[in-house]
Amino acid sequence: MQSFEYKCPTEVVFGKDAELKTAEKIKKYGGSRVLVLYGGGSAKRSGLIDRIETVLQQAGIAAEIMGGVHPNPRLSFAREAEKRAELFGADFVLAVGGGSVIDTAKAVAIGLAHPGKDIWDFWTRKEAVTGAYPVGVVLTIPAAGSETSDSAVLTDEETKRKRGLNTDFNRPQFAVLNPELTYTLPSFQLSCGITDMLMHTLDRYFTIDRNNQLTDEIAEAVMRVIVRNGRVAHCDQTNYDAMSELMWSGSVSHNNLTGLGNEKDFSVHQLGHELSAMFDVAHGASLSAVWDSWANYVMSSAPERFARYAEKVWGVWNGETEEKAKAGIMLTVRFFRSLGMPTCFSELQGVGIQSDEVLKQLASNCMYGGERTVGTFCKLDIPAAYEIYKNANY
């Protein structure tokens, strides 16, 4: 196990009607004037935004409500939201939604703490983050784990660049998790969320470190729980127990617990980000579309790791190492398909089979034109990324 430092200060409030404690938690962390962000109309139509607004009003907390956060959260919207928060005099940002809303809230919080500086400069490393306004979350989508993570992703829609930023300043002060708030999610959105939380664990599990017993077994347990309850929830989205397990698994999958003492890989996320940036596809779908190709490309570098994954997560105990490794990959792909998720470009809505020129552009974009490599399990450069995209292009 490698040396590590671990901090996950987010207070989690879990259970039925947990959102009724939102005002109490905002006050606990110093908020009195709150910018409330949400995404599409579902949070409004379901009555959740009205309930949150009422809870805040009854507690004497002033609120500015702003909807319209887009999946693959937009830089332009984050800039607009920051200006609105400044005009309102916000001292707290509350995200009501999933990963895109939470990441936007984190961007606004960082922007507010650095007046006169552009948000994007922090995501492109031109500026260092030295603080952030407090953020709270009312989670409605079990998926990204952003409610407990130190990361946030933004997309510059003008340049079609998607970038992530990791800093402890991104950690929300609290996260409200009520599984009942997930019941009205569109089926595809739920499937994307299940895929994302599984991938957050996989991108930590496939590592060059091989002697990390507790972290490995935590990750394997999380993945088994996601698969088991993902199947149930896909058929019955109002199953409270299944949605509870998924909601908590999403939070645990991205708070760094499942990767402690390991070097994170996250090459699948980087490959998927470029698909989202170029084609504006759903994040979870971009991941499932390239995972099969990535796994088969890198499997030979450490087949025993894939074999362990097949054993511990999928119960594949028979066969030689390589046979088990391939079976684990096949069963993962089959699970994605059972959720209605794409596993190649032709199944990825809005993408389809691409020209060789586009594949080369995707590979170059992923590596910042050759300025970096991605991954630690198997380092990928432009030619490697091109091969993975090409093998998914059917």
From TrEMBL:
<dbReference type="GO" id="GO:0046872">
    <property type="term" value="F:metal ion binding"/>
</dbReference>
<dbReference type="InterPro" id="IPR044731">
    <property type="entry name" value="BDH-like"/>
</dbReference>
<protein>
    <submittedName>
        <fullName>Iron-containing alcohol dehydrogenase</fullName>
    </submittedName>
</protein>
<dbReference type="GO" id="GO:1990002">
    <property type="term" value="F:methylglyoxal reductase (NADPH) (acetol producing) activity"/>
</dbReference>
<dbReference type="InterPro" id="IPR001670">
    <property type="entry name" value="ADH_Fe/GldA"/>
</dbReference>
<dbReference type="InterPro" id="IPR056798">
    <property type="entry name" value="ADH_Fe_C"/>
</dbReference>
<dbReference type="Pfam" id="PF00465">
    <property type="entry name" value="Fe-ADH"/>
</dbReference>
<dbReference type="GO" id="GO:1990362">
    <property type="term" value="F:butanol dehydrogenase (NAD+) activity"/>
</dbReference>
<feature type="domain" description="Alcohol dehydrogenase iron-type/glycerol dehydrogenase GldA">
    <location>
        <begin position="9"/>
        <end position="179"/>
    </location>
</feature>
<dbReference type="GO" id="GO:0008106">
    <property type="term" value="F:alcohol dehydrogenase (NADP+) activity"/>
</dbReference>
<dbReference type="Pfam" id="PF25137">
    <property type="entry name" value="ADH_Fe_C"/>
</dbReference>
<dbReference type="GO" id="GO:0005829">
    <property type="term" value="C:cytosol"/>
</dbReference>
<keyword id="KW-0560">Oxidoreductase</keyword>
<feature type="domain" description="Fe-containing alcohol dehydrogenase-like C-terminal">
    <location>
        <begin position="195"/>
        <end position="367"/>
    </location>
</feature>
